[in-house]
Design brief:
There is one protein chain. Helices cover 74% and strands 0% of the residues. The chain is mainly α. It has a single domain, classed as Farnesyl Diphosphate Synthase, CATH 1.10.600. It starts with 19 loop residues before the first helix and ends with a helix.
Length: 235
């Protein structure tokens, strides 16, 4: 079995209870950051004048599956460095889960693309490209950087949420997508040095960055929930 110090099992977003395999699986989902991405998609959805709530739920579920599970597993498998989560799961188990969740996400997306929002297909193709290009560091790792992370998991989810509702793009949707991309950029700028400091045992500096990561993820999710509550009250 993998030793704790070989994995990220002691991260702040990993539960302190349960068997190691359970804790590693929850950690692998990076729930605070997945929550941010889902929040961006929800925020984009809520920019529409009239909300189709099934579509808002569908785009949130799509990103929960495609990013929360599939992309994070792809990142674990495709990492050029040591396995960030050790060897609690075999590569075949991870690949199977990645494929199943990705197929489910695209099945939901395809349903809405075919029947209601064909423009979403553009976002679906882009996100599929980034899932593999970023996480597997293809094309010489050109897309594995902070900018493309912010585009793929910050800007595009908000745009996808708006497109899911309206089958169109607007100035406000682009502006909000730029804002969510910037928030995502701030998160990854903090996350990379935090990970290295944590690995190197520099607890004081790592703690400051950890507090920043907690603040940015919690405030993003809280903002989306507040916006959601407001729209529900108005409807």
């Amino acid at each position: 079995m993998t030793a704790k110090n070989e994995t990220r099992i002691n991260e702040w977003f990993v539960p302190k209870f349960g068997p190691a395999k359970f804790r590693v699986f929850v950690g692998l989902l990076f729930l605070p950051y997945t929550g941010m991405c889902i929040s961006f998609a929800v925020i984009g959805s809520l920019l529409a004048g009239d909300i189709a709530w099934d579509r808002a739920g569908a785009i949130a579920l799509i990103y929960a599956l495609a990013l929360g599970v599939s992309a994070h597993i792809a990142d674990s498998i495709g990492s050029k460095k040591a396995k960030p989560w050790g060897s609690y799961f075999t590569k075949s188990q991870l690949l199977a889960l990645m494929v199943v969740t990705l197929v489910a996400a695209y099945a939901i997306g395809t349903y809405y693309i075919v029947l209601f929002v064909p423009l979403l297909a553009v976002v679906a193709v882009l996100e599929g490209f980034f899932l593999f290009a970023y996480n597997f560091e293809t094309f010489g790792g050109r897309f594995h950087n902070n900018f493309w992370f912010a585009v793929s998991w910050g800007a595009l989810p908000a745009l996808a949420g708006y497109v899911m509702q309206t089958n169109s793009v607007s100035a406000i949707a682009l502006a909000v997508s730029a804002a969510t991309g910037f928030v995502s950029y701030l998160e990854i700028r903090m996350s990379r040095p935090y990970k290295e400091l944590k690995k190197g045992g520099e607890d004081e500096k790592a703690k400051r960055l950890e507090n920043g990561l907690k603040a940015i993820s919690v405030s993003t999710i809280a903002f989306a929930l507040a916006m959601l509550a407001y729209r529900i009250i108005l409807s």
